[in-house]
Structures
1.
Amino acid sequence: MRAADGAELHGIVTGEGPVTVALVHGWTLDETCWAPVADRLAGVRVLRYDHRGHGRSAAVDPATMTIDQLADDLAAVLAQVAPEGPLVLAGHSMGGMTTMALAERHPEVAKRVRGLALVATAAGDLRGATFGFPPPVVRALRRREHALYESARWTRRAALSTHPRLLEPAMRTLLLGRNPSRSAVRTTTDVIAACRPTTVSGFLPTLEAHDRHRALAVYADLPVQVMVGTRDRLTPPRHARRIREGLPQADLTLFPDAGHMLPLERPDGVARRIAALVGAAVPA
């Protein structure tokens, strides 16, 4: 697949049906994080792809690592693989932010959307987030991060770590809830370990600047499912509640004891809610 500026994107299209479901992944992740949900969606065409700079998609200039660009990429991918017919969008974390930016930048595409799932995401208010860590620890890290991001040991590395298992304790603390499955731990750790360091740092500014509460109004007449884990440190439940203030018709689901990685931690529940959106989108 091709991004809006021609960058090569890795993608997968599976299944058949009158509705295309686009599963859009989060920051530092890739399309494999949606695989357990995709496997549970029957009778529907499912699109998964890796954002620019993520997974098997091309490395790109960090200057292009913005949520606006991701929205343009999503519009370009949909034009290639689903140029017609109803759409259901499901965005996890930064993927959810991408669907909000799509509404802003590509209203002609948003008009085809018949249902929206916003999974462990936020419409803004991320600047200064501590992600559950003590503020002094976060401030100490922030003082050092710019020097790290400019260093050769950061910019020349192909992956965050060649020893994924060493990251498991941090991944459990930061991204996963209570008693995650072994597969959820392994997939989360492997995907993030393989992420390019420049992708981590390149998207940080756009995440902090993200503010699309007003953009939610484009989806005000649609069925919307908002989902969050009660132990989500990155986008805790207050963000889901704020989204629902902008989309009062939305159904809000809090998954007890789940963390940020809902497509891996609670694939049954996430898939059921997306399937409900598909059912509502099927033309009579």
Note: DSSP finds twelve helices and seven strands in the chain.
2.
Amino acid sequence: MPLAYAELENFYEGLVARARSRGIPCAITSGMACVAFGVAQATKDCDLLCAPDLAGEFLKLLQESSLGGQGPHYRGHLTAPLDSRWLRGGWTSHFMWKVPDLEAYLDVFGVAPRGSVPWESDVAGFYAGLHTVAEMKRTNRERDWPFTTALGVKLLEAGDPRGWLHLFNFEVLVQTAEKLRCPETMVTLRPALALLTGPDERLELALKGEVEFWNRLDQLRLKVYERAVRPYLLAVKADVRSRNPSLEVQHEVRLEHAESVLPTSPLCQYGIERLIAEAKDQAARFLPAGALEWLPDARGCFSFLAE
């Protein structure tokens, strides 16, 4: 019988519960968190944040975790090893369980992409908090942006003013401003919110500028990792041991090649300031003049990466 979504949800939540019982901070984020918060439909994929320093302990837990009678294995040759050095540098480790009629996926992060606060301080039950999930949804995928706004609305409904930072839909933002006052602290963090007074006719342009900037920033971020991973990908793919069904052996192979050719923190090596500047330059090519005048300071969204 195929595993239903509820069974997968229970499996992943159980994984978090067992990890925490061993002193490993972790939380489910992204798509499955959006489902839990009521802003998305079911997904079989699970993104999980794990304290980087305890990556080795979490790997041991994964080795003991079966789903439908099947154990996990690394997904493909592209994935970085589940090791604290690479998790701290922003890499993701990809796993899967191949169950009859279903492939269940688990992606493990140590650092929340675009996260401006420690994710460990922003947790709701088994899940990362609304603010962390909303920041992670500022991707280069158009389908993610409605979730960002929906999560922002949820934050405001819960009395958390950080919801103002995530409203990217013009109509929703204006309607919200008619009912609530935007605090100056949020305007400081997101300058475009200053255009709510009136409202200023430039507000819609500013929102388009923000979205395009975050899109370009995410695209460039991914390209940095894609370039850095190529030698590692080729090395792992050529190593016949990588196809061993044992997760322990798969990990040893990936760790061996990572220590030789995979930089631990390619974004820091590339330069955060450089990355942001290039994202602005690229966004400016597709926007009317002035659209980028109200961008926030994005440097804080990389402050938790280890160099």
Note: The chain has a mean pLDDT of 94.
